[in-house]
Amino acid sequence: MKIRFPFSLACIFLLNCTNSHAQSQRKEQDFDVNYIESRVPEYQLPAILQLAEGKEVQNPEEWHCERRPQILSLFSNLIYGVVPVPEFPIRVNSEVIDETDFLDGRCTRKIIRIQFENQRGAAEMQVLMFVPKEKKEAAPAFLMLNFDAVDSEKMQMASGESGMLESGIPLGKLIDQGYAFISVYQQDLVGHNESEFKNSIHQLFFREGQSYPKANEWGVISAISWSATKALDYLINDPDIDGERVALLGHSKLGKAALWAAAQDERFAMVFSVQSGCAGAALWRRKFGETLAKMSIFPNWLCTNARKFIHQEDDLPVDQHMLMGLIAPRPLYVASAIDDHWADPRGEYLSAYHASAVYEMLGKRGLISKSTPAVGQPLITQDLGYHIRAGGHRVEAYDWEQFIGFANYHFKQ
Hints:
The chain is of the alpha/beta class.
């Protein structure tokens, strides 16, 4: 059976083909962007292990019961936006709409449609799954937030003997290692650069007379994060998937969404942030590469409240090391690329380094050195991992090798 995936539905093709256009646009717009380390301003990060009233966090219980909720609330209301309680309950319906052999019978491909509906409207998303056939138990999984869609014919042509999908995802290798691969398309529930929210999932949450999110309510990134959570709702009830071993992965904008999804939903067992930069892994206060001012060309990626801190990042009561801290003690892996200056690889590493204080308090192993490791020397055998590789803003085979190694270390020990 040949299934075609409309451009607005779930998919598998990654960001690579759009990068050259995006980067050419950046060159025209980046005359005022800092790419020189010596020009990074002095800054002081908010204390991650200090309660709002000034008291130091003394133990894991105080972290989980007091400090963590404080930080989560700040990110919700000031950066990504709160998901409001809908005026009318939302009905959710999930169904498998296609199931077939794939990759020469080495795995099963399943397409799941998830529908949402209430008196305010309706929306749907698709979850694309590849599950290994040779498995003795439910499979651990990589759940990847993806950028673009292709049809099933192109996916079949891309599989070949190597098992490499057209987007560069090493499906064959993942299947052989016993992992399921799951894809969620970023634009099923919200437009890439949504400006009016007229056709997004937000419609189901608006109250009578409301036509736009309030200043502290969710933007585009938060909606994509929500879609990851809804996919996980399905996966934990699918007998083919080990719901306690689902790793969430996202690149660039979707790396931002992956971090925020995992910060809110502690059911994600592991997280991979790949060159997520500003509003992702990188520190706001460094003002290196992409900044909040530059993100404002996508005015609704974050909530409206975030705009108050444009050129005022030092006034933020949070920084991104605190977002990473919300993921502790679960394994977290940050991937950077040395030529991806826009994403501030140094700032991504420092953010992970400063988040390590939470991991250590919770008895886990973080990053012990403030110095970024050398190119090609990944830190995998710990709970907060990292690598920086040669090259630019894309996901490469080298990245996937480290992701699989990190997952094997934590899921198969």
